[in-house]
Specification:
Helix content is 74%, strand content 0%. The chain is an all-alpha fold and 598 residues long.
Length: 598
């Protein structure tokens, strides 16, 4: 006998979980061996009477087959089941397992034969029959599947699964009368329900049996007279089928019973909308939206639709939309979804920041961990350079959203901008601890750049350079890090080759950036390349509207070394008269009319 390779069989077995579950359920109760009464779906097979020795061998091989199957040795299990079948060709349990294996091997004919034989030997086994019917259905044999399910419906009247399967099968065949008949049987078993009635309503409409269609929904209402939801369904059915007077009478009847029923208010609004009565439609819709009993998802859907309708009609009635938001936002309690929609709408309409901010703060009152709202507020603060506001926005975020490293970055940056450097450094240090493999590497690089700048201000160049090195590990092209690192190395007159290499990258990336040009010119100056340094310092002055004292002093130093003492003195005097002058040698340079190294 040719055997399927183990790996192939294992892969096939694992592909079809639906059959394995059914097989497991079936094998749990299929070991009984008694002759059954004839079944209507398949012919009954008389079980073979085994001798005591055959029975003992059969049970041994069956246990061994199950063990091999559980251990994953599927080809050996298949061989054991075949051996069991050679001993007892009428064993339902073995036939079922064999069908299962043949299905995995795409041997449909053999699988079908085994399934049918298993059912014939065990006609009272629900799971065998259900699996056989499902097999027929998957194999494109709907009539055979229907025959089995009909047999099951008669044999197992307490089970609904066969009838539900029949509804689907008859529906696929567009056999509407049998769909209706089967749904009627389900209703007898389970009682009338919205699901069954609506399905029958739909089928009756397909059959052009309008009277029967409406009768189904009306019977549903009579079955549950105290459930206004079914009355609203009936009214909706009337409305969808242009029975306007019946729809209105039904909706009004519900409102007479429950004047504050929000769904009834919406139903009446839909009636007026269909009638083209905009004023009454808007009045009813507003009443429903402001009804505290209306659930938030429905209110949210309505507002979304109002926005869509407003944009599609071209009138862009922003005033009405915003007025409605103003009235319904105070109704929010457990979620801020409406406020988020409102903020999104206002941003889309490019409304002023000061109008949007109160909505965002309202969101944070309800959902303090709402990252989107907090980041939007932060963007407004950063845009206005309002660092104290940014600090107030970011600090709570470290408690509510500790995993969002952007908040650490902007909090640390804001501290840095207001000269709270110790707090900035502590915040940046906590921020990098939150970094993961998924974090934005450029952002982490910026963290380390700012940490390096702070360490340099604290005159701890060792830690500053270590931070810059870390910054370049995360982003080798971080221009800010390259410039500052290079400049501070040049001030110490150390590792100038590396400083030049880093500084050149910044000039190449941004050839009109005065700060980067000044850094590169100064490094060239420190390396004694004065003529080149003069070219770059001239570009720096040309590209900077208001150069600082350090730049003017660099100009003087470079011009002096190129032999232009008068121009050097002019530049030094400019530097001396500026507020940001911190030079220790500038006055002596001017007095002595020569360059003095610090």
């Amino acid at each position: 006998m040719k055997r399927t390779p183990t790996l192939l069989l294992r892969r096939l077995v694992l592909c079809c979980a639906w059959l394995s579950l059914l097989a497991l359920a079936a094998s749990c109760g299929s070991s009984a061996r008694a002759t059954r009464q004839p079944d209507t779906a398949t012919a009954t097979v008389t079980e073979k009477a085994l001798t005591e020795d055959e029975q003992r061998k059969f049970e041994y091989f069956l246990i061994e087959a199950s063990r091999l199957k559980q251990s994953g040795d599927y080809d050996a299990a298949l061989e054991m089941y075949e051996h069991c079948l050679s001993i007892d060709p009428t064993s339902g349990a073995v036939l079922y397992e064999m069908a299962y294996f043949y299905t995995m091997l795409n041997q449909a004919d053999k699988a079908q034969d085994c399934f049918e034989r298993a059912v014939a030997v065990n006609p009272d086994n629900f799971w065998y029959k259900q699996t056989l019917a499902a097999f027929y259905q998957r194999a494109g044999q709907p009539d055979k599947a229907i025959a089995v399910y009909e047999s099951m419906a008669a044999q197992f009247p307490q089970r609904s699964e066969p009838l539900l399967a029949l509804v689907s099968l008859y529906g696929e065949k567009q056999d509407n009368p049998n769909v209706i008949r089967t749904l009627d049987r389900l209703e007898v078993k389970e009682g009338k329900s919205e699901q069954f009635s609506m399905e029958k309503f739909r089928i009756y409409l397909q059959m052009d049996s309008t009277a029967h269609a409406f009768n189904e929904i009306e019977k549903l209402v009579k079955e549950y007279p105290n459930d206004t939801r079914y009355k609203l369904i009936l009214g909706g059915v009337y409305l969808d089928n242009d029975r306007m007077d019946d729809a209105y009478a039904t909706f009004r009847g519900v409102l007479d019973e429950e004047p504050d029923n929000p769904q009834a208010q919406l139903a009446v609004a839909s009636y007026y909308q269909r009638q083209g009565n905009d004023s009454l439609y808007n009045a009813c819709l507003d009443r429903a939206l402001l009804n505290e009993k209306l659930d938030t998802p429905t209110r949210l859907d309505i507002m979304r639709q109002l926005i869509i309708d407003s944009e599609q009609t071209g009138n862009g009635d922003t005033t009405r939309i915003m007025d409605m938001f103003r009235r319904i936002l105070p109704l929010e309690r457990e979620s801020a979804d409406l406020s988020m929609l409102c903020a999104q709408y206002m941003i889309t309409k490019q409304m002023p920041d000061d109008r949007i901010k109160p909505v965002l703060y309202h969101i944070l009152e309800i959902e303090p961990d709402n990252t989107v709202a907090r980041l939007q507020l932060l963007s407004y603060a950063v845009k206005k350079d309002d660092y104290n506001d940014a600090i107030a926005i970011c600090r709570p975020a470290l408690e509510y959203n500790p995993e969002v490293i952007e908040f650490y970055y902007y909090l640390g940056l804001s501290y840095y901008q207001v000269d709270r450097t110790d707090e900035a450094l502590a915040t940046f240090s906590k921020g990098v601890e939150q970094a993961t493999e998924k974090s934005d590497k450029e952002l982490i690089s910026n963290f380390y750049q700012l940490m390096g700048d702070i360490y340099h201000e604290k005159q701890n160049n060792q830690l500053a350079y270590a931070a810059y090195d870390s910054s370049l590990v995360y982003n080798p092209e971080n221009i800010g890090t390259l410039n500052n690192y290079a400049y501070y190395l040049s001030l110490e007159r150390k590792d100038l080759d590396r400083a030049e290499e880093m500084s050149y990258k910044t000039v190449k990336a941004e050839p009109q950036n005065a700060t980067y040009l000044d850094t590169y010119a100064w490094i060239l100056f420190e390396k004694g390349r004065y003529a080149e340094a003069k070219l770059y310092i001239d570009d720096a002055i040309k590209n900077e509207q208001s150069p600082g004292a350090a730049v003017w002093e660099h100009c003087g130093d470079i011009y002096y070394m190129t032999g232009d003492t008068e121009k050097a003195l002019e530049f030094w005097r400019k530097a001396l008269g500026m507020e940001d002058n911190e030079s220790k040698t500038l006055e002596r340079k001017i007095k002595l009319k020569k360059y003095i190294a610090e």
